[in-house]
Amino acid sequence: MATQTEVLTQLMQTAPAYCSGDELAQLFGISRTAIWKTIQSLQGAGYTIESRHGRGYRYVPNNQLSATVIQAALPSKIAPQLVVLPTVDSTNAYLKRLVSQTPLSQPTVVISDTQTAGYGRSGRAFYSPEATGIYLSIGLPMHPQQSFDPGLLTTGTAVAVAKTLTELFEVQVELKWVNDVLVNHHKVVGILSEAVADLEAGQLSTVIVGIGINLMTTDFPKALATKAGAVTAKMDVTRNEVISTLLTEFFTSYQTYTTGDFMADYRRLSMVINQQVELKSGTKTVTGIVKDIDSTGALVVQLPSGQIQRLNSGEITKVNLLTGAYHG
Ligand code: BTN
């Protein structure tokens, strides 16, 4: 009996052309009635499959998230485990619960249509309405001898997201250190990396990279309305395509991220280099002019005294553009 996945994959490969019921029946060695039943199940599961008398069946991409569709668009060497959920409290929290039960044996990506308790840095909530955004977490198992560089993973992820958005949408993307992604001076993506430790072994067991993208979200809560924005007003690609592209960029970059080979791209996209900023790092507030972002991803700031300070963590709370205007 042909599985739904096999029939769906075949229809995706043939699209936008039709595939006849006869062809499918022959291919999978089952009756046309069995094919028809499989098509009905796929439609029931939310896939759009058009049927036309005399021509057969045709797959039409839609807004529904699907692991099969995402996986089919990934290069063969990128094959993380994919978990797609209709709703969850938080994809980061889901992965944390998962790894507390069983360590990951392979990279695992959890994607949800909506989150009821999505969160960001400093315990802030991440607004995650259904259908208009992408909320996913990438769980990366850490092997005992593996080196982990949080600064470069964070900056590398921001570049992977920026490349995805510029590839698929006609937008100019800017990066606000360390990993806020902006379009039209509004934050459209939030990234939150968290580490899970194996206390008995005294080492990291998993790194979780959470990414939230406001693709078409517009109805932000009041507190966010002036700062947050959407990537686009009109979607010509599906969320599945955005996720496949993002995972391809991410996992390609992840293979060599400790070399920092993407830092030139990061600097080119940075909106803070040569600008005056105010930054909160722990309990300290630092103001100064950003001179560079160094090869480790640290912010290089010239203080009013002329002294140079390197900051590995913190959040830029104000950017007073010495050139142009920033409304965030
Ligand atoms: C920030 O801007 O402070 C980071 C926001 C990170 C949000 C994403 S959405 C997917 C994943 N799940 C979460 O609960 N948070 C991250």
UniProtKB/TrEMBL annotation:
Listed EC numbers: 6.3.4.15
Binding site for biotin: S90, T91, N92, Q115, K187
Keywords, ordered alphabetically: ATP-binding, Biotin, DNA-binding, Ligase, Nucleotide-binding, Repressor, Transcription, Transcription regulation
GO MF term set: biotin--[biotin carboxyl-carrier protein] ligase activity
Residue ranges annotated for the BPL/LPL catalytic domain, each copy included: 67-258
Its job: Acts both as a biotin--[acetyl-CoA-carboxylase] ligase and a repressor.
Protein's recorded name: Bifunctional ligase/repressor BirA
UniProt lineage: Bacteria, Bacillati, Bacillota, Bacilli, Lactobacillales
